[in-house]
Specification:
This protein has 354 residues and is α+β, with helices and mostly antiparallel strands. The protein has two domains: 160 residues, Aminotransferase class 4, branched-chain amino acid transferase, N-terminal domain (D-amino Acid Aminotransferase, Chain A, domain 1, 2-Layer Sandwich); 166 residues, D-amino Acid Aminotransferase, subunit A, domain 2 (D-amino Acid Aminotransferase, Chain A, domain 2, Alpha-Beta Barrel), CATH 3.20.10. 23% of the residues lie in helices and 30% in strands. It contains eight helices and 18 strands. A hairpin with a 3-residue loop joins strand 15 and strand 16. Helix 2 packs across helix 3. Bound molecules: pyridoxal-5'-phosphate (PLP). Pyridoxal-5'-phosphate binds next to strand 12, helix 6 and strand 15.
Length: 354
């Protein structure tokens, strides 16, 4: 792929690495590739990070034909720049796009684009502990039209944001609100895709949870409101008795890269791992009878989030005395160790950008 580069004439000052937060700063450049029906992907370019001029009839603004991805670049102790399983993000975007009738960006092109912009902006990869460069690829329908049909032109863009720990307080248990009124996804819908529309539909529940003093929402299945599915931006796992349970990937749950990686680690460590339905009643019961040992959310942004409290219709369960459990900690240490290149990577999950 030929990528044309236009360098910014006024580079920004880098933010303080100790107060990055999540998603507050953006780098000097972005990468864009255009798509037009009949022509395919064309005009890959790195340009200064700047506002996008858009027709007010651009279809994304009306019917939300938009998908995105999220991954990170890490600086290892040798100073190399590393990605974690970027092919999983490339494939997931292809699957998301297929559901939204958007064109596929080939896997090799996705990875080449990510590598090109990260390499170009590598001075922005922070080096302080637990920091990384968050990579946000996204694609949207650019065709000006207010007819409801798939657009014939799209833009694929990558922006980058240096980030610190997702939760500034560190890896501490969070409180989760089990949502029994709103639903996030149903089978046959778009739950398995990373599309902006899923999030637009979820913020009402998030606001409600925050008003009640909870950090995130635990979604129940959209039909029975009975089976636990996932958290706002994370998959979720429950350690009950001798079994670790997480919802199966069957249409309404997002297939997380972190989820997949954790399941692999757990299996290799000899745990009994089940991708199966778990009802909220069985979960609360396990919380009350003492068999619920640990609960944790998994996602690229936070890596792992221990859950210390669940509230379902006013019934409250406290997990592991509101402390991070040993299994949660071990998963966090191992996965972040691999991601930051501090420990050996027996799975060949990491990829050094040459
Ligand atoms: C992105 C996302 C996840 C986590 O996926 P990762 O690939 O692990 O970052 C989980 N649930 C939802 C709804 C998401 O959007």
């Amino acid at each position: 792929m030929d990528i044309k580069i236009t360098r910014s004439t006024h580079l920004k000052e880098k933010p303080d690495q100790n107060h990055l937060g999540f998603g507050n700063y953006f780098t000097d450049h972005m990468l864009t590739i255009d798509y037009d029906e009949g022509q395919g992907w064309h005009d890959a370019r790195i340009t200064p990070y700047e506002p996008i001029a858009m027709d007010p009839a651009a279809m994304v603004l009306h019917y939300a034909q938009e998908t995105f991805e999220g991954l990170k670049a890490y600086r290892n102790p040798n100073g190399d720049v590393m990605l974690f399983r970027p092919e999983m993000n490339a494939r997931r975007m292809i699957n998301s796009n297929a559901r939204l009738c958007m064109p596929a960006l080939p896997e090799e092109m996705f990875i080449e684009a990510v590598e090109a912009i990260v390499k170009y902006e590598q001075d922005w990869i922070p080096t302080a502990p637990d920091t990384s460069l968050y990579i946000r690829p996204f694609m949207y329908a650019a065709q000006p039209s207010v007819g409801v049909h798939p657009a014939n032109s799209y833009k694929f863009i990558i922006i980058l944001s240096p980030v610190g720990a997702y939760y500034p307080e560190g890896v501490n248990p969070i409180k989760i609100w089990v949502e029994d009124e709103y639903v996030r996804a149903v089978k046959g819908g778009t739950g398995f895709t990373k599309c902006g529309g899923n999030y637009a539909a979820s913020v009402a529940a998030q606001v409600k949870a925050e008003q009640k003093g909870y950090t995130q929402v635990l979604w129940l299945d959209g039909v029975h409101r009975k089976y636990v599915e996932e958290v706002g931006t994370m998959n979720i796992m429950f350690y009950i008795g001798d079994e670790i349970i997480t919802a199966p990937i069957d249409g309404s749950v997002l297939p997380g890269v972190t989820r997949d990686s954790m399941l692999r680690l757990l299996k290799d460590w000899g745990y009994k791992v089940s991708e199966r339905e778990l009802s909220i009643d069985d979960l609360m019961e396990a919380g009350h009878n003492g068999t619920l040992k640990e609960v944790f959310g998994t996602g690229t942004a936070a890596v792992i989030s221990p859950v210390g409290e669940l509230n379902y219709k006013g019934d409250i369960v406290t997990i592991n005395d509101f402390k991070t459990g040993p299994l949660t900690q071990r998963l966090y240490d191992t996965l972040t160790g691999i991601q930051w290149g501090k420990i050996e990577d027996p799975y060949q999950w990491t990829r050094i950008i040459k």
